[in-house]
Amino acid sequence: MSRLIWTLGIVVFGFLMACTPAKQVVVVNYLQQAETDFIAGNYEAALTGYENEMSAKKSQAAVADGIVYQNAGLSALALKQTAKAIEYLEVAKYTTAVDAETWAALAKCYREIDNLSKEIDALEKYIERYPDGKEISSFRVRLFETYVTSENWDLAFGAWPSIAETASLQLKLLNDYFKVNKKLGNDANCDELTPKMLQLDDKNPAALDWQAKKYFWKAEDLYVAEMKAYEANKTNKQYLKLLEALKQSTADFKIALGYFDRLYAIDPKPDYADYIGNIYTRFDDKEKAAFYHNKGKGKK
Known about the structure:
There is one protein chain. By secondary structure, this protein is mainly alpha-helical. Helix content is 81%, strand content 0%.
């Protein structure tokens, strides 16, 4: 009887030993399949596999490797499951698996859900840590745009040199950079930018507005200053100086009028009508001055 029990024990032990490697093989094959699916672009299957691995680890009071969360997040992003992608990538970024893809994916996810502050953080991390990354050029442009959108004018100004070579040929980016310089009071830069903007778009409202007002106030300030100087000192010398100043101011008023005429044709704002009326007042054309001043007051 004891011999029979011993024999049965050997059989049971052998059976258990035979089963154990089989279960291990299943686990290994399962993980390998998830990786195979991910590499092949079968993201739905890969995501399911990685999530099963997370669940298995959790049931063992453990945490899956960072690469599992990284690849799960990238798979979710490919499947346009943005919320899930963020959930997994936010875990991956604190592990050794974090790389350029992690921050690139997070930047895209946060842009998708319009979370500007977190998008900026992801873009900054990518640019700072991966200056040779494959998306560095487009991310530098995007970071500049996010700074403008969030009204971080100084940061936007500082970001411009890294994109200036290519961005200077793109009207939208030139418009943004002009806005930055206008907000910062960099008038010289605005003077330099507006002709370039008008080369790309001769009806660009921001550039036309800047040029029109620049020449108007240049002419007006000179006119007022020299008239005041002559009133204070009515000599022949001062009169000759006044005549020269009037020639220059008239030339600048004409340039301003050209810009305002184009602006008014695009957008007949009362403000523009008043400027035009003021120019005709300086030209001593009472009829046109009255016409545009009435337009400025909303009269027909």
